[in-house]
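Dear Dr. H.,

I hope your travels went smoothly. While you were away I took the liberty of generating a structure for the chain from your last submission, since the lab meeting agenda had it listed for discussion. I wanted you to have the full record in hand beforehand rather than looking at slides cold. The sequence, exactly as received, is reproduced here:
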Amino acid sequence: MNVSPYVFFNGRCEEAAHFYADALGGEVGAIHHLGACVAAAKNPDAVQHTDVSVDGKIILQMSDGVEDAVHSGFSVSLGVQTVEEAKIRFENLVSEGVVIVPLAPSFFSPAFGMLTDKFGVSWIITATA
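The corresponding predicted structure, in token form, is as follows:
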């Protein structure tokens, strides 16, 4: 079984995809615009689907979503191998965002932190070693 979050961006999906690919050291997959799939689309430039992969694995799927839909109540949890990688990913993701819990050692991880990025997506960063 594979699980990956599917995140909606209400018109900023393409920008978000490139931000996450840069922040996480990944790549943006094919970007499918709504106009190429639905002839009567209100916004043909809206992203119907794309994804971000890191090390060949899809970690985020995304879309501009359905107009006026509200999506909340989740965080994306990112587990990394080292404290150094946790610091890099945390700083990259929090750019123009808000620190919720500063990245610091905890009883369960040598580096744990929480943030909300500039797109309003909540992240939990945890280092395993």
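Two observations you may find useful: Residues 90 and 123 are 9 Å apart (CA to CA). The chain has two domains: 6-63, 76-127.

With kind regards,
E. W.
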